[in-house]
Amino acid sequence: MSQFDIKTEKVAVLLGGQSGEREVSLMSGAGVLEALRSVGVNAHAFDPSQRDLSELKKEGFTRCFIALHGRFGEDGTVQGALELLGIPYTGPGVMASSIAIDKIMTKRLWLADGLPTPAWRLVASAQATEAAYAELAQPGAPMIVKPAREGSTLGLSKVTAADQCAAAYALAAGMDEEVLCEQFIAGDEVTVPVLGSAAQARVLPVIRIQALDGNYDFQAKYYTNTTRYLVPAGLPEGEEAAIQALVLRSYQSLGCRGWARADVMIDAATRQPYLLEINTSPGMTSHSLVPMSAKAAGISYPELCLQVLQTATLDHALA
């Protein structure tokens, strides 16, 4: 990573964008911008959907904090553009970002590395979704149907009967040409942030999520106050450390750096944790989980933003 000089650098907070998570990104970016300015960083908002990225170079920006979520911000595209511009940026690089947003590719790599993730099928029609339901659904537990390359539970459905498969497939397929059917794991839902890179990467405290009626959807994530977040998570002795170790392995498996947040389900019967996905540009809103976990570790919101900014780097620095 490049050395950060708070006195001389000009920082762009990339926010907004053109994905389905634009409104959340605007909230994340506003929080990051205010936090960085509060500790003396010369930071400015920059919305790539309103301005050409080439303006970053013309206006003398030396570093970018990526607060974009979803496509065209978390999928390797912006990362690649910043590589060409030679401007260090926060979060994982081009390849890790493009893999992590693709849940299918993520699962393939995790399985190749022996990491546990729920059983799944890639489907191409409503009929294939019904076949997957017959194969994956457990008694009394639904199957999850979702787009392969979206975040924030956008396009996600819980299917509890075969006659729901067509609508679930249509919803997911409207957002992505690749649709993933995934075995539902009944149990505790937790999320775990990671900060840093390589040997310096460290895992923050586990957060256990208790959503109303067990439905942790887009609304519950960002706009309601009924969801409970438990940190300390209150897990059985030794389990939190084991989950943290698993998340660190999953982070390293995808080649992540800078920061990310992994979502995990813990089977209620066996206590086996299953990796769901990794978010490589996590939310930073008032409801977001990385700041919550960081606070439990004694890291304030402004300090967290500054630490992440200091990790900004490039895959390949141009001569």
From TrEMBL:
GO terms for biological process: cell wall organization; peptidoglycan biosynthetic process; regulation of cell shape. It catalyses: 2 D-alanine + ATP = D-alanyl-D-alanine + ADP + phosphate + H(+). Keywords: ATP-binding, Cell shape, Cell wall biogenesis/degradation, Cytoplasm, Ligase, Magnesium, Manganese, Metal-binding, Nucleotide-binding, Peptidoglycan synthesis. This is D-alanine--D-alanine ligase. It is found in: Cytoplasm. The gene is ddl. GO terms for cellular component: cytosol. Mg(2+) 2 binds at residues 277, 279. It comes from the Bacteria.
